[in-house]
Write a structure and sequence with these properties.
Largest interface: A-B, 28 and 32 residues
Low-confidence stretches of chain A: none
Helix content of chain A: under 10%
Largest sheet of chain A: 6 strands, mixed
Distance between the termini of chain A: 41 Å
Number of strands of chain A: 11
Order of helices and strands of chain A: EEEEEEEEEEE
Number of helices of chain B: 0
Order of helices and strands of chain B: EEEEEEEEEEE
Helix content of chain B: under 10%
Shape of chain B: globular
Radius of gyration of chain B: 13 Å
Oligomer: heterodimer
Shape of chain A: globular
Distance between the termini of chain B: 31 Å
Strand content of chain B: over 45%
Largest sheet of chain B: 7 strands, mixed
Mean pLDDT of chain B: 93
Chain lengths: 114, 115
Amino acid sequence: ILNVEQSPQSLHVQEGDSTNFTCSFPSSNFYALHWYRWETAKSPEALFVMTLNGDEKKKGRISATLNTKEGYSYLYIKGSQPEDSATYLCAFSGYGGSQGNLIFGKGTKLSVKP
Amino acid sequence: DSGVTQTPKHLITATGQRVTLRCSPRSGDLSVYWYQQSLDQGLQFLIQYYNGEERAKGNILERFSAQQFPDLHSELNLSSLELGDSALYFCASSVVVAGGSDTQYFGPGTRLTVL
């Protein structure tokens, strides 16, 4: 059974703090790694899709790195703002007949206090 | 707004009943995916359709079925409902069938409550 683990489960930071979370996934048959941001009462919103080992992606104050050999990705938020409060999900896609399937982690819930 | 629409937003029904959830993908997207989010569980993949044909199946119960119509909208049918089927059901869409690296755009979800 393929498992995607995210840590920590939740995180409380002060406005202005920088933070990072981890996503661990199977290193074999890797195809892509997705990051989503999910605000309460809204739908998950795509942040990044990463496919190559060593990939780094950036969107404003949010960036992500990928290590496919060891099976992990980091998401960084620089200078957290209250509007960054959300659950951050990662999802793994592997090679095979069902590579469109995304296997999601349970997410890291970030709360940013003003 | 992702461009993916789902109806209804909320659904309350009784055990043993049958319901249909509807999803319209973003304009131009051919693939539709259904996910279930239960309490304390991550998003669980149920099923994928591409241009009207089933492409992949995940942890979908036999009591559940789906289809994608010629206009590309999709319906998820849930029958003989049980209390444990209460969950948030999301539909997502993407452009092509090689969805592993395609961004999936999620709809607002349908919250199903089975009493």
